[in-house]
Amino acid sequence: MLLAAAGKQINLIPSGFSQNVSVGALGRAIRQRKTQVINDIGMDVDYIRFENEPNLSAVIIPLIFNGYVNGAIILNSEQINAFGSIDVWLAEAVAAELSRSWERSRYHQRLMNLVQTGSQLSAMVQPETTVREVASIARDILQARFTFVQVHLGQERNFTLCASSGASPRLLESLEKSESSEALIQMAFHAVQPFRVRDVRKYAPTSHLTLDHVGLKSMIAIPIRWHRLSIGTILAFGKQNEVFFNENDQSLAELLSIQAAGAFESTWLQQELRGSLRITSLLYRLSTQIIQAENLQNAALDIAQTAHKIAKSSTTGIILLGLEGHIVAEVQINSTGVHTGVEHPMGIIKDVMESGQLIYLSQGNSMTRACLPIQTPILKYGILWMDIHEDQGHKSIANPNDLQALVNQTAIALERSVLLVESRRQATEIKAAYDTLEETYDQTLAALMSALDARDRETEGHSLRVSHLTAKLGKLLNLSHDQLKVLERGSLLHDIGKIGISDTILHKPGPLSEEEWKLMRHHPDIGARIVEGIPFLQDTIPLIRHHQERWNGTGYPDGLHGEEIPILARMFAIVDAFDALTSNRPYRQKISEQEAVDYLQEEAGILFDPEIVGIFKKLVTENQPGLLPQKNHEK
């Protein structure tokens, strides 16, 4: 398919022109993956002419990247022997640069997509949905033909989820059912970082895999790690339109691993929180029902019904005892309803009464009988027993902690303070977990911005430095904790919009032209659009969008004046200018911190908020140990 043409002969090319790449001189160049120099078209039997084409010589250069032909450049001349060795060398250099440019463009687009998918993953509430979404996102970001994801969640990592994306049924079956695949998954699971395999058929740990077609032969394995613990892995097979995965894919894989780990822990935490709230609600309601019950028989029914819901048991029974040890109330619940006056398993009941301990007894047919004493340190009130289904590991699917909490609540409903203390402890743990999750989000942002900063060696580390220094300034201005967090994140992300700016502009060694400045001035708007769909970054949009505004209204994008500019953006503009002045750039040398402060003082009330400049001057001149960020030695 023709994508672009130039020259006086473009009228020779029919509208909607396309050519089979297996025929003609073009097909020969692609098959041989080698430049074809045709000095006399009339002598080349493969050359396919257009109608009335006057050309007599041609050069065809295949565009190859990572072993895959992306297309070709075709040059024609109306003269014989028109192209010399220098012409061919220059054309091949152009083709190589075009292929590299395409790869850079694709990488930047995939990086932007990866940033935006963070909001999709953060919105997930079910682990099952999250693992499917991660498989789909990984396939899209890595441009793979097929992806497989396996994660192990829970405190004991005993809750396993798997998902895949892409149509490769034979490969999926060999991953799910082969013992050798379990060894492969464990190897990827415990890897320190992502690793690539060019041909799984020639690599011993993967040679057992059954591929649906040869296009799946390349693989990249990505461990999912959380706080240095492995919780899962992503296996991606078959790079689309290329022979194998490259270093850019591995770089994106590392960022994808961070996002996936945060998403899985977040959804699991939410699920556990919902389960905890459900149990707490049931137990609280039970304590009220016991107190309000007219007699012990009604109380026994309420206890059995609550236990039946919590344990999801097939049969639930309860016996309540009087002070003399005789039965004063009993009930059983099963699939047929509520029953009284039926036989209870007295053998295990007597053992539990004597020992005062919970006893589990396998019943066969994937069923376990649990028997729990209802007691306080002073009295034994009775016994609760349940027949509960087992999981594949022959363990009861009911949580023993939930069952124990149930009998404790039943034993003494008036001691609600016990539940209150437990609830406060859980709330503290949940808050700590959410604080850890928030820290991980910030680490993800820092990793993303480090990847973006690496595009420009001259500003590498700039985002982290200004974030650190802006936070110090915010503390001097007595900003709240929430404002400081917004300030820190906004400072990290202030230049994220430069994803959409060409490398030729970002890497230009001298001053920008007016046209280049017009493009550069779009980066605050681009940055604001990138984060606007991410809930936890909404408050950073004013800083990202307005960090280039100036006090006198000469800034961009909206030309705001004075206090019309959001205060966080006004603060950041001062720190941003200070860091730029004290850093080497291609077009100037850095100046001292004192000279930079003097410049800010001169521009106070013109470019910068004069009141904040005064506070910042105090921050820099006092320069207490650890107050200013340390820069790497610059060459």
What does this structure look like?
There is one protein chain. With 635 residues, the chain is an alpha+beta fold. It folds into 4 domains: 10-103, GAF domain (Beta-Lactamase), CATH 3.30.450.40; 124-271, Beta-Lactamase (2-Layer Sandwich), CATH 3.30.450.40; 293-414, Beta-Lactamase (2-Layer Sandwich), CATH 3.30.450.40; 455-622, Orthogonal Bundle (Hypothetical protein af1432), CATH 1.10.3210.10. Helices cover 47% and strands 16% of the residues. The protein has 19 helices and 14 strands. A 6-stranded antiparallel β-sheet has the order 11-10-9-14-13-12, with helices on both faces. Strand 12 (359-364) and strand 13 (367-375) form a beta hairpin. Helix 6 runs parallel beside helix 9, helix 17 packs across helix 18 and helix 18 packs antiparallel against helix 19 (610-622). The longest helix has 46 residues, at 247-292. The two termini are 48 Å apart. The model is unreliable at 414-422 and 624-628 (pLDDT under 50).
Describe, in short, the structure shown.
47% of the residues lie in helices and 16% in strands. The chain is of the alpha+beta class and 635 residues long.
Characterize the biggest β-sheet.
6 strands, antiparallel
Please name the CATH architecture of the largest domain: Orthogonal Bundle
Shape: flat
User: What is the CATH fold-level name of the largest domain?
Assistant: Hypothetical protein af1432
Number of helices: 19
CATH superfamily of the largest domain: Hypothetical protein af1432
- Helix % is 40-55%
How big is the Rg? 34 Å
Q: What is the class of the largest domain in the CATH system? A: Mainly Alpha
Strand order of the largest sheet: 11-10-9-14-13-12
Low-pLDDT runs: 414-422, 624-628
Class inferred from helices and paired strands? alpha+beta
Give the rounded overall mean pLDDT. 81
Residues in β-strands, percent:
15-25%
Spatial gap, N to C terminus: 48 Å
Number of strands: 14
Total domain count: 4
